[in-house]
Amino acid sequence: MLQRSGTLDERLKDELVEELKNGIGIHTGGAIASSMGPPSSPIVLSTGDSVNIAARPEAQTKEFSVPLIILDYCCGT
């Protein structure tokens, strides 16, 4: 995802005021995934505690200026 955003950033450099920045938060656990909308352009959603918990370190990537945060719970420590 980080490599792709760099490619997209380069392609859109004349249209963007700032470069694109991605943040990734990784947590493990169950989630419910579903597809909504028409078959030609479905929207895939995931919900659940694990998704919500992963959103917190994802938000912290901006605070720490890092692209990825993995919770130690995922590493078995």
How many strands appear in the DSSP assignment?
4
Strand neighbour order, sheet with most strands? 1-4
H/E topology pattern = HEEEHE
Give the biggest beta sheet: 2 strands, parallel
* Chain-averaged pLDDT: 85
Number of separate domains: 1
Residue stretches low in confidence (pLDDT < 50, at least 5 long) are: none
The helical percent reads 25-40%
Ends: how far apart? 26 Å
Structural class: alpha+beta
The proportion of strand residues reads 15-25%
Radius of gyration: 15 Å
In a few lines, what is going on in this structure?
This protein is of the alpha+beta class. It is built from two helices and four strands.
Structure commentary:
- There is one protein chain.
- With 77 residues, this protein is of the alpha+beta class.
- It has one domain (24-77).
- Helix content is 34%, strand content 21%.
- The chain has 2 helices and 4 strands; from the N terminus they run H-E-E-E-H-E.
- The chain has helices spanning 2-11, 49-64, and strands spanning 24-26, 32-36, 43-47, 68-70.
- The strands form 2 sheets. A two-stranded parallel sheet has the order 1-4.
- The model has no long low-confidence stretch (mean pLDDT 85).
Topology of this structure?
Blueprint: H1 2-11, E1 24-26, E2 32-36, E3 43-47, H2 49-64, E4 68-70
Parallel strand pairs: 1-4
Antiparallel strand pairs: 2-3
Task: List the keywords.
single chain, alpha+beta, 2 helices, flat, 77 residues, two-stranded antiparallel sheet
